[in-house]
Amino acid sequence: MKLDNNNHSVFLLKYHLVLVTKYRRKVIDDNINERLKEIFNYICKKYNITLEEWNHDNDHVHILFRAHPNSQLSKFLNAYKSASSRLIKKEFPEIKKKLWKEYFWSRSFCLITTGGAPIEVIKRYIENQGKK
């Protein structure tokens, strides 16, 4: 397992993010998906975030990414959702027929931390510290 680092720490912070379109409208095709991914890659650099995996269905995207301890995830999510919503609606005007208001994404999202070891293994490791 390769760990990330900076001047004073070593870390591995991975997240699984699911973003859903407003009203679960089925508007994400392959072209829109690629553009959403490009926008993600552009914005993530400012927040010390690295895309690891991306996939989509017609009404949502799944994203696996790595972050640094100083990454401001809530600010990043707001920046990404705002910018991608604005750009997608501008570049793909046909979406306005299915999403008539200013929103592309639902307000809600799912963000789950992921890791290399199951939580039970980590708990046992911590419980056994100091024991021979």
Number of domain modules: 1
> What is the assembly state of the chains in this entry?
single chain
Quickly give the structural class.
alpha+beta
Question: So how many helices?
Answer: 3
Question: Globular, elongated, flat, extended or rod-shaped: what is the shape?
Answer: elongated
Model regions low in confidence, pLDDT < 50 over at least 5 residues: none
**Main sheet attributes: strand count, strand direction, barrel closure:** 4 strands, antiparallel
Count the beta strands: 6
Question: Going by CATH, what is the homologous superfamily?
Answer: Transposase IS200-like
Average the pLDDT over all residues and give the rounded result: 92
What is the H-and-E element order?
A: EEEHEEHEH
Helix content: 25-40%
Could you describe the 3D structure shown?
By secondary structure, the protein is of the alpha+beta class. The chain has one domain (10-127): Alpha-Beta Plaits (2-Layer Sandwich). The chain is built from three helices and six strands. The chain has helices at 30-44, 73-91, 119-127; strands at 4-5, 10-11, 13-21, 49-56, 60-67, 105-114. The protein has a four-stranded antiparallel sheet, covered by helices on one side. Strands 1-2 form a two-stranded antiparallel sheet. Helix 1 (30-44) packs antiparallel against helix 2 (73-91). The longest helix is centred in the middle third of the chain and has 19 residues, at 73-91. The chain is elongated and about 65 Å long. The two termini are 26 Å apart.
